[in-house]
Amino acid sequence: MLIIPAVDLKGGKCVRLIQGQKDREIVYGADPAEMAMEWVGQGAKRLHLIDLDGAFEGSPQHLKVLEKVAARAGVPVQFGGGVRSMDSLRAVLDAGATFVILGTSALKNPEFLEKAAGENPGKILLGIDARDGEVKVSGWVEGEGVSPEDLAARFEGLPLAGIVFTDISRDGMLEGFNPEATEALARAVAVPVIAAGGFSRMEDVDRLLPLAEAGVAGAVVGRALYEGTFDLKAALARV
Predict the structure, then answer these.
(1) Whole-angstrom Cα distance, residue 193 to residue 206?
(2) Which end of the chain is more exposed for a tag (fewer CB within 10 A), N or C?
(3) What is the mean pLDDT of each run of 10 residues along the chain (239 residues)?
(4) Helix pair angle (86-94, 110-119), 10° resolution
(5) Taking each helix axis from N to C terminus, what angle separates 32-41 and 63-73, rounded to the nearest 10 degrees?
(6) What is the set of active-site residues?
(7) What is the pTM of this model?
(8) How far is residue 162's CA from residue 159's CA, in Å, rounded to a whole number?
(9) Which domains does the chain have, with CATH numbers?
(10) DSSP label at residue 60
Protein backbone atom coordinates (compact mmCIF):
# COMPACT_ATOMS: atom_id res chain seq x y z
CA MET A 1 0.00 0.00 0.00
CA LEU A 2 1.52 3.30 -1.15
CA ILE A 3 1.03 6.72 0.41
CA ILE A 4 1.94 9.11 -2.41
CA PRO A 5 2.53 12.82 -1.73
CA ALA A 6 1.07 15.17 -4.34
CA VAL A 7 2.95 18.14 -5.75
CA ASP A 8 0.56 20.23 -7.83
CA LEU A 9 2.19 22.67 -10.23
CA LYS A 10 0.78 26.01 -11.32
CA GLY A 11 2.76 29.02 -12.50
CA GLY A 12 5.98 27.30 -11.47
CA LYS A 13 4.82 27.02 -7.84
CA CYS A 14 3.54 24.26 -5.60
CA VAL A 15 -0.19 24.87 -5.08
CA ARG A 16 -3.51 23.22 -4.30
CA LEU A 17 -6.80 23.99 -5.98
CA ILE A 18 -9.87 23.43 -3.85
CA GLN A 19 -12.09 20.99 -5.79
CA GLY A 20 -10.03 21.77 -8.89
CA GLN A 21 -11.31 25.35 -9.19
CA LYS A 22 -8.78 27.81 -10.65
CA ASP A 23 -10.02 30.67 -8.48
CA ARG A 24 -9.60 28.67 -5.25
CA GLU A 25 -5.83 28.41 -5.18
CA ILE A 26 -3.54 27.99 -2.18
CA VAL A 27 0.20 28.47 -2.75
CA TYR A 28 2.41 26.27 -0.58
CA GLY A 29 5.85 26.90 -1.99
CA ALA A 30 7.86 28.63 -4.71
CA ASP A 31 10.11 25.62 -5.37
CA PRO A 32 8.15 22.42 -6.16
CA ALA A 33 11.34 20.37 -6.44
CA GLU A 34 12.36 21.26 -2.89
CA MET A 35 8.86 20.35 -1.69
CA ALA A 36 9.10 16.99 -3.47
CA MET A 37 12.43 16.29 -1.80
CA GLU A 38 10.90 17.05 1.59
CA TRP A 39 8.43 14.19 1.13
CA VAL A 40 11.12 11.84 -0.19
CA GLY A 41 13.19 12.69 2.86
CA GLN A 42 10.27 11.60 5.02
CA GLY A 43 10.16 8.22 3.30
CA ALA A 44 7.83 8.58 0.32
CA LYS A 45 8.34 5.75 -2.19
CA ARG A 46 6.55 7.53 -5.07
CA LEU A 47 5.59 11.10 -6.00
CA HIS A 48 2.48 12.44 -7.73
CA LEU A 49 3.11 15.52 -9.90
CA ILE A 50 0.14 17.23 -11.54
CA ASP A 51 0.65 20.01 -14.07
CA LEU A 52 -2.47 22.12 -13.49
CA ASP A 53 -1.53 24.62 -16.18
CA GLY A 54 -1.10 21.71 -18.55
CA ALA A 55 -4.51 20.30 -17.67
CA PHE A 56 -6.21 23.61 -18.48
CA GLU A 57 -4.11 24.48 -21.54
CA GLY A 58 -3.90 21.02 -23.13
CA SER A 59 -0.15 20.43 -23.11
CA PRO A 60 2.45 19.99 -20.33
CA GLN A 61 3.84 23.29 -19.03
CA HIS A 62 6.19 22.07 -16.27
CA LEU A 63 8.55 19.61 -17.95
CA LYS A 64 11.63 21.30 -16.47
CA VAL A 65 10.19 20.90 -12.97
CA LEU A 66 9.49 17.23 -13.70
CA GLU A 67 13.03 16.79 -14.99
CA LYS A 68 14.47 18.35 -11.85
CA VAL A 69 12.32 16.29 -9.49
CA ALA A 70 12.91 13.02 -11.33
CA ALA A 71 16.66 13.56 -11.36
CA ARG A 72 16.86 14.27 -7.65
CA ALA A 73 14.12 12.18 -6.05
CA GLY A 74 15.38 8.66 -6.61
CA VAL A 75 11.80 7.33 -6.47
CA PRO A 76 9.21 6.78 -9.23
CA VAL A 77 7.28 9.85 -10.32
CA GLN A 78 3.76 9.71 -11.76
CA PHE A 79 2.96 12.79 -13.83
CA GLY A 80 -0.29 14.07 -15.29
CA GLY A 81 -1.78 17.19 -16.81
CA GLY A 82 -2.17 18.04 -20.47
CA VAL A 83 -0.63 14.88 -21.95
CA ARG A 84 -2.86 14.49 -24.99
CA SER A 85 -0.52 13.50 -27.84
CA MET A 86 2.24 10.98 -28.47
CA ASP A 87 4.73 13.86 -28.68
CA SER A 88 3.79 15.20 -25.25
CA LEU A 89 3.76 11.67 -23.82
CA ARG A 90 7.28 11.07 -25.11
CA ALA A 91 8.41 14.42 -23.73
CA VAL A 92 7.08 13.55 -20.28
CA LEU A 93 8.74 10.12 -20.29
CA ASP A 94 11.99 11.64 -21.55
CA ALA A 95 11.83 14.18 -18.71
CA GLY A 96 11.94 11.31 -16.23
CA ALA A 97 8.38 10.28 -15.40
CA THR A 98 8.03 6.60 -14.52
CA PHE A 99 4.27 6.67 -14.99
CA VAL A 100 2.10 9.03 -17.02
CA ILE A 101 -1.50 9.75 -16.03
CA LEU A 102 -3.91 10.09 -18.96
CA GLY A 103 -7.38 11.31 -18.11
CA THR A 104 -8.97 13.69 -20.59
CA SER A 105 -7.89 11.56 -23.55
CA ALA A 106 -9.83 8.59 -22.17
CA LEU A 107 -13.02 10.44 -23.10
CA LYS A 108 -11.82 12.78 -25.81
CA ASN A 109 -9.39 10.55 -27.71
CA PRO A 110 -9.54 6.92 -26.58
CA GLU A 111 -7.48 5.80 -29.57
CA PHE A 112 -4.56 7.82 -28.23
CA LEU A 113 -4.84 6.20 -24.80
CA GLU A 114 -4.94 2.75 -26.39
CA LYS A 115 -1.89 3.52 -28.52
CA ALA A 116 -0.03 5.05 -25.56
CA ALA A 117 -0.67 2.01 -23.36
CA GLY A 118 0.15 -0.44 -26.14
CA GLU A 119 3.48 1.19 -26.89
CA ASN A 120 4.35 1.83 -23.23
CA PRO A 121 3.11 -1.20 -21.28
CA GLY A 122 3.11 -0.72 -17.53
CA LYS A 123 3.76 3.02 -17.78
CA ILE A 124 0.28 4.49 -18.30
CA LEU A 125 -2.08 5.24 -15.42
CA LEU A 126 -5.69 5.89 -16.39
CA GLY A 127 -6.83 8.99 -14.52
CA ILE A 128 -10.51 8.87 -13.59
CA ASP A 129 -11.78 12.00 -11.87
CA ALA A 130 -15.45 12.00 -10.90
CA ARG A 131 -18.03 14.18 -9.21
CA ASP A 132 -21.36 12.67 -8.12
CA GLY A 133 -20.65 9.51 -10.09
CA GLU A 134 -19.84 11.32 -13.37
CA VAL A 135 -16.36 11.42 -14.93
CA LYS A 136 -15.03 14.95 -15.48
CA VAL A 137 -12.16 15.96 -17.80
CA SER A 138 -10.28 19.01 -19.17
CA GLY A 139 -9.40 20.40 -15.77
CA TRP A 140 -12.61 18.92 -14.27
CA VAL A 141 -14.88 21.26 -16.22
CA GLU A 142 -16.36 18.87 -18.82
CA GLY A 143 -18.30 15.63 -18.54
CA GLU A 144 -20.36 13.29 -20.70
CA GLY A 145 -22.45 11.39 -18.17
CA VAL A 146 -20.08 8.42 -18.00
CA SER A 147 -19.53 6.58 -14.71
CA PRO A 148 -16.03 5.62 -13.50
CA GLU A 149 -16.81 1.92 -13.87
CA ASP A 150 -18.11 2.34 -17.41
CA LEU A 151 -15.09 4.36 -18.47
CA ALA A 152 -12.68 1.85 -16.96
CA ALA A 153 -14.49 -1.01 -18.73
CA ARG A 154 -13.75 0.61 -22.11
CA PHE A 155 -10.04 0.02 -21.57
CA GLU A 156 -10.14 -3.40 -19.98
CA GLY A 157 -7.35 -5.55 -21.35
CA LEU A 158 -4.89 -2.72 -21.96
CA PRO A 159 -1.47 -3.09 -20.25
CA LEU A 160 -2.14 -0.21 -17.86
CA ALA A 161 -0.11 0.39 -14.71
CA GLY A 162 -3.34 1.09 -12.87
CA ILE A 163 -6.00 3.73 -12.28
CA VAL A 164 -5.79 6.93 -10.25
CA PHE A 165 -9.31 7.64 -9.01
CA THR A 166 -10.14 11.09 -7.67
CA ASP A 167 -13.39 12.07 -6.00
CA ILE A 168 -13.50 15.74 -7.01
CA SER A 169 -16.01 16.69 -4.33
CA ARG A 170 -13.53 15.56 -1.66
CA ASP A 171 -10.40 16.99 -3.27
CA GLY A 172 -8.68 19.59 -1.13
CA MET A 173 -11.52 19.64 1.38
CA LEU A 174 -9.77 17.74 4.20
CA GLU A 175 -12.98 15.83 4.87
CA GLY A 176 -11.82 12.26 4.26
CA PHE A 177 -11.72 10.18 1.08
CA ASN A 178 -14.55 8.17 -0.49
CA PRO A 179 -13.90 4.50 0.36
CA GLU A 180 -17.21 3.27 -1.08
CA ALA A 181 -16.67 4.68 -4.58
CA THR A 182 -13.01 3.68 -4.52
CA GLU A 183 -13.82 0.10 -3.58
CA ALA A 184 -16.61 -0.12 -6.18
CA LEU A 185 -14.21 0.89 -8.94
CA ALA A 186 -11.43 -1.39 -7.69
CA ARG A 187 -13.75 -4.39 -7.71
CA ALA A 188 -14.88 -3.57 -11.25
CA VAL A 189 -11.39 -3.62 -12.78
CA ALA A 190 -8.43 -5.98 -12.95
CA VAL A 191 -5.72 -3.33 -12.45
CA PRO A 192 -4.68 -1.63 -9.19
CA VAL A 193 -6.54 1.51 -8.12
CA ILE A 194 -4.92 4.46 -6.36
CA ALA A 195 -7.34 6.63 -4.39
CA ALA A 196 -7.16 10.44 -4.32
CA GLY A 197 -9.17 13.30 -2.94
CA GLY A 198 -9.84 14.10 0.70
CA PHE A 199 -7.11 12.25 2.60
CA SER A 200 -6.63 14.24 5.76
CA ARG A 201 -5.95 12.13 8.85
CA MET A 202 -4.73 8.76 10.07
CA GLU A 203 -8.29 7.45 10.16
CA ASP A 204 -8.27 7.64 6.37
CA VAL A 205 -5.30 5.27 6.31
CA ASP A 206 -7.20 2.88 8.57
CA ARG A 207 -10.14 2.99 6.15
CA LEU A 208 -7.81 2.51 3.20
CA LEU A 209 -5.95 -0.57 4.38
CA PRO A 210 -8.87 -3.05 4.19
CA LEU A 211 -9.43 -2.02 0.56
CA ALA A 212 -6.20 -3.79 -0.45
CA GLU A 213 -8.27 -6.96 -0.74
CA ALA A 214 -10.44 -5.23 -3.37
CA GLY A 215 -7.42 -4.13 -5.41
CA VAL A 216 -6.66 -0.68 -3.99
CA ALA A 217 -2.90 -0.15 -4.09
CA GLY A 218 -2.46 3.21 -2.40
CA ALA A 219 -3.54 6.79 -1.96
CA VAL A 220 -2.46 10.25 -3.07
CA VAL A 221 -2.27 12.80 -0.27
CA GLY A 222 -2.03 16.53 -1.00
CA ARG A 223 -3.37 19.44 1.00
CA ALA A 224 -3.37 17.56 4.32
CA LEU A 225 0.41 17.23 4.13
CA TYR A 226 0.84 20.95 3.55
CA GLU A 227 -1.67 21.93 6.21
CA GLY A 228 -0.07 19.61 8.76
CA THR A 229 -3.16 17.49 9.45
CA PHE A 230 -1.51 14.35 8.05
CA ASP A 231 1.74 12.87 9.35
CA LEU A 232 3.46 11.19 6.38
CA LYS A 233 6.03 9.32 8.47
CA ALA A 234 3.33 7.91 10.74
CA ALA A 235 1.18 6.93 7.76
CA LEU A 236 4.07 5.16 6.06
CA ALA A 237 4.82 3.30 9.26
CA ARG A 238 1.15 2.27 9.53
CA VAL A 239 0.94 0.86 6.01
Answers:
(1) 17
(2) C
(3) 95 75 70 94 97 91 96 97 95 98 87 97 95 75 80 94 87 71 95 92 94 97 90 96
(4) 40
(5) 30
(6) 8, 129
(7) 0.91
(8) 9
(9) 2-238 (3.20.20.70)
(10) -
